[in-house]
Amino acid sequence: MRVFLCSYADSGFSLAIPMENISSVFLLSKEDLKFNQQTFSDGSFIYNNTENNNVYVSLPVIFDCSNANVRHGIILNKINDENIVLFTTEIDSEVEIPDGNFYSLPKAFSTLLFSDIFNGFLFNFEYTNKSNGDLILLLNPNQLIQYVKKEKI
C-alpha cells in the first residue's frame, strides 16, 4: 500500500494516509495557515464551509497536537458533494508499506478517543525518521469521514 507519512514528532508517531483515498495534495499558503489558526483556535477539529461544500478537518487538533507545524492540505476522494480537506503536518515521505506489515489495534485502544479512525499500526525504523519515533498509525479515511459526519450533526 502506498502511503504519505506525516510526522507528529511531539506525540512520537507518524500518520500513514493511504494514497488511494487522496484526490490531491497542496502546500498551505499564508491565507490557508491564517484560516487554520483562526478556525481551529477554539479546539474544535472540524469546520463545515457551506459556501463551497468543503469540510475542513485539523488532524493536529484531533491528536491534541495543536502546536504542530501544519504545512499540507490533503483533499480526500469526493464523498457525495463534499470535499473533505485534511490539514496536517508536513508530508515527510511517500512510501510503499505492504498491507501485511500493519497490525490490528488491540481492543484496549478502543477506549481511546479517535481509535476507530485507524486501521492498524506498525513499529518500524525503516519508514520513519528515528527522531520522529517509530510508531506509524494507519489512517482509515472512510472511518474518519464517518466520524466527521457524526460531529457535524
Radius of gyration: 15 Å
Strand proportion, as a percent range, falls in: 35-45%
Number of strands: 10
Low-confidence stretches: none
Shape: globular
The profile of the biggest β sheet is: 5 strands, mixed
**What share of the residues lie within helices?**
10-25%
Spatial ordering of strands, largest sheet: 8-1-2-10-9
The secondary-structure element order is EEEHEEHEEEEEH
Structural class: alpha+beta
Give the rounded overall mean pLDDT: 85
- Span from first to last CA? 33 Å
Count of helix runs? 3
Oligomer: single chain
Provide structural commentary.
With 153 residues, this protein is of the alpha+beta class. The protein is 17% helix and 39% strand. The chain contains 3 helices and 10 strands; from the N terminus they run βββαββαβββββα. The protein has helices at residues 30-39, 59-62, 141-152, and strands at 2-8, 13-18, 22-27, 46-49, 54-58, 70-76, 83-89, 91-96, 118-123, 135-139. Strands 8-1-2-10-9 form a 5-stranded mixed β-sheet. A 5-stranded mixed β-sheet has the order 3-6-7-5-4, with helices on both faces. The radius of gyration is 15 Å and the shape is globular.
Please give a handful of descriptors for the protein shown.
globular; about 150 residues; 10 strands; five-stranded mixed beta sheet; alpha+beta
Question: Short summary of the structure?
Answer:
The protein has 3 helices and 10 strands, in the order E-E-E-H-E-E-H-E-E-E-E-E-H. It has helices spanning 30-39, 59-62, 141-152; strands at residues 2-8, 13-18, 22-27, 46-49, 54-58, 70-76, 83-89, 91-96, 118-123, 135-139.
